[in-house]
Amino acid sequence: MGIDRREFIRIAGLSTLLGLGGKGAFELLRPGQVEASMAAKPAAEGVVRWAMVVNMRKMDDDTAKKCAAACHRVHNVPNFAQPKDPKDALPPDIVNRYEVKWIWPEHFHNAFPGEEHPHMPEQMKNLPFLLLCNHCDNPPCVRVCPTKATFRREDGIVNMDMHRCIGCRFCMAGCPFGARSFNWKDPRPYITDTYPGYPTREIGMVEKCTFCAERLAQNMMPACVEASSGALVFGDLNDERSQVRATLKRYFSIRRKVHLGTNPQVYYIV
Amino acid sequence: MLEKALVGTKRYYMLLAILMGIFALGFLFYLRQLQVGLSITGMGRDVSWGFYIAQFTYLVGVAASAVMVVLPYYLHNYKAFGRVTILGEFLAVAAVTMCVTFVLVDMGRPDRVMNVFKYPTPNSVMFWDIIVLNGYLLLNIVIGWNVLECERHSVAPPKWIKFLSYVSIPWAVSIHTVTAFLYAGLPGRGYWLTAIMAPRFLSSAFAAGPSLLILLCLLVRKYTKFDPGKEQIQSLAKVVTYATLINVFFFFCEVFTVFYSQIPDHMLHFQYLFAGLAGKSRLVPFMWFSIVGMTVTAILLTNPKLRRNENTLAMLCGMVILTTWIDKGLGLMTGGFVPNPMEKVTEYAPTIPEALITIGVWALGFLVLTLLYKVAVSIKEELKA
Lengths: 270, 385
Ligand code: SF4
Ligand code: SF4
Ligand code: SF4
Known about the structure:
By secondary structure, chain A is an alpha+beta fold. In chain A, 31% of the residues lie in helices and 13% in strands.
């Protein structure tokens, strides 16, 4: 769920004081507006534009695993290969089909199809390129969504209101990066330990990486970035002194499928 | 007029009972789907639309094809079609009913469907599709019903009905165009990203829809006292012939661009469908059957002898329906999603519950069709008597 629970409780609580009642406030504010109101306040003047740099020079299998595990833990992303109750076990092809993933590793030729060639460094071919939602500047997922359940915030985060999503999956067809997951099955029996700080989901709605909007609102770095030992860099692209800007200035970087015009905001240093 | 749908022969009741039975079976499985989610289907994170949306797409075409009887009648004053316009319009009503049901059945959260109206989003093609589909449904119900009512009382239909009939002509084109735009505007789905999508949708619709109408006319003639007419069927056969030819032509236009340009993003999907990719080739025999069958049928249809013989015509129409259905109801969805954005190949096949739910929706459509046709045919029989 895109709404930060604490923020929601705070707003709902405030409006109860004003005599509106929690539910009334929810309807009044409309989920979308609740979301929009929680855009992280810029540290400096001007607009924030969040972006991520994946530094493949510092990436290895172990780090990639840690990043994905960190994200999936604090966001209650189910692991269909690991049911809580062994009787819910699923065959591997089904696990692949139902899989929900916010961030996951792929080899170069899958992350950047068509860009590989036989003479590139062997080691590069096998590096774990971490893939996640690119929080595109021109996001087709937002364009196609018939309910504005997927929307773009001022700070560039493409977020979701899972209470509004009707599960039509138009956005999954629209995203050219495979960044979106649908809840084909009830995820709860496949979350080994539920993280209390984030809601679990139900069947029938779409979800994806939120750039940790809920953590940014509390001035925390995204969970994957914290777990990355410096391989992931996150920050404000509009701030000249930010670490993302410094890193992008220093090293040459590539992005996924730029020719499609979505303007991805996850950069890869190779 | 509705009372006409309530009285009929034993055979009529039997048909209704069978259709209701199939619908009920599908509905039971749908209840199960509501409980366990869409994991009951064969879809997954890579092929995230399947049978349901494919049927929806196909049936929008069938609905749009009513224009092929309405247009000659109203714009060219082709009087002969006056007898069959009602059959075309009621077929459209049944088809759109199925379309809307399929969209609903495909939704992860049907309980929230009203969100589409609560938060109208004009930048989403789906928003427009919902508007044009519901508008078209309404148009055909109003026009069909009123014209029939007037016919019954032997009076000329009022002016505003005529006006609505004119409106329904571009409207029919719009429903299938907008449906094509659902797919044709998505970056990164090479199979769909082509300007010929909407024209191809229309041509296959004008091939399949009138084919179905011909078969229905033949059935109506066989089982009722109303004869839709030989000339009418022959005129429809010509429509089918041209539309099928154009559809095959459009297909080869697409094949040329894709394979001469050699752009992998576009080519890989065709390779998957027609040759298989990464050792996965489930759809290959279907796709070859579809395109070869469609081409041969188109050529055979150009032969007036085969067309004039109603037995061979019926067979050829059956082929048109089958081959366009494979192309649009099977290949289009899967072809667009395979390979996935990471160029990995995950195949799709509908599960048994998914197939039963699908058949249930079709049964619902044919139930609506049977009831409406019963009304129409009863009125026509009454007039003749
Ligand atoms: S990566 Fe996909 S889901 Fe994320 S913003 Fe871009 S199009 Fe949308
Ligand atoms: S599945 Fe949800 S988020 Fe995606 S397009 Fe449909 S309503 Fe929008
Ligand atoms: S930014 Fe946050 S939500 Fe996105 S992948 Fe990293 S941890 Fe997960």
